[in-house]
Specification:
This protein is of the alpha/beta class. Helices cover about 40% and strands about 25% of the residues. Strand 7 (about 185), helix 7 (about 190-195) and strand 8 (about 205-210) form a beta-alpha-beta unit.
């Protein structure tokens, strides 16, 4: 199967339009059409409904989408591993859950690069479902996520347990409800504990699923939110943000899961 045809299919799906996909791939629209025709001929099914308004996946296209993504990612990994940067002897592929990069994964990866100068690193962002599929297929070596992954060929360990503290853009004491409170969703466990600690009927009118975006909002617009202490610490030290005394605290755990065959190349995965 032609890799370029799969790349084109994914580009059309992403752009929703053959013209925009052609611009993204830097090819003509006729080349895009020819690649899609060849792909559908090989699959024996139509994967896209093409019209002047755009392009939409067919039922067969939906079924093929995940496999196409996996094939393309496998190709990218193979190409990266064949053409490692000069001086590098191996490539470690890490998946980092949304919201875990700034303040947690970023300094960890910086330490890894300093300790293992012969290893190149690639970082993918993904949810647990993505990470499980990528690890099991061998596309990735390890995943840093809020929850551990399980499987016969996977290992896992607790990576961190960090304080989630309520901070505000102005110094104040704890109160029943802040109308400028921003909710940060750290997962179902946090939501349950948050409801127990704050049982009032008020609901935040703004929420984020990543603390870095909530932090940026507090800096630009003010308000309060629960942030990881390590992420908030530089702003607390500069008195750009203020910890709210007496406010309930929570813990956020992160877990590192890895492919057991990858430990031979990267023994530090097991801690």
């Amino acid at each position: 199967m032609n890799i370029a045809a799969i790349q084109t299919f994914l580009a059309v799906y992403r752009c929703g339009n053959l013209n925009r996909a052609a611009e993204e791939l830097n090819v003509t629209q006729s080349a895009v059409t020819a690649r899609l025709d060849a792909l559908e001929a090989q699959l024996g099914a139509r994967v896209l409904i093409r019209s002047r308004k755009g392009a939409e996946l067919t039922k067969a296209g939906f079924a093929f989408l995940k496999q196409a993504e996996l094939i393309w990612q496998s190709w990218e990994v193979a190409r990266a591993r064949v053409s490692l940067p000069r001086g590098m002897s191996r490539l470690c592929s890490l998946v980092v859950g949304p919201g875990l990069w700034q303040g947690l994964a970023a300094p960890w990866v910086a330490d890894l690069r300093a300790a293992h100068p012969g290893t190149a690193f690639e970082i993918w962002s993904g949810l647990a479902s993505d990470a499980a599929r990528w690890l099991q297929s061998g596309l990735s070596d390890a995943a840093l996520l809020p929850e551990p992954l399980s499987g016969g060929d996977l290992g896992t360990r607790l990576f961190t347990s960090e304080r989630l503290i309520q901070v505000a853009s102005q110094p104040r004491d704890t109160c029943d409800w802040d109308p400028d409170y921003v909710f940060v969703d750290y997962g179902p466990g946090f939501r349950a504990r948050h409801t127990e600690a704050w049982p009032q009927d008020n609901t935040a009118n703004l929420s984020f699923n990543t603390p870095s975006r909530a932090l940026a909002h507090l800096i630009d617009h003010g308000g309060s939110a629960y942030l990881p202490e390590a992420l908030a610490r530089p702003y607390l030290d500069r008195r750009t943000l203020f910890e709210i005394p007496g406010s309930p605290e929570f813990q956020r755990q992160t877990h590192l899961s890895w492919r057991k065959p990858s430990v031979e190349l990267f023994p530090w995965l097991t801690g």
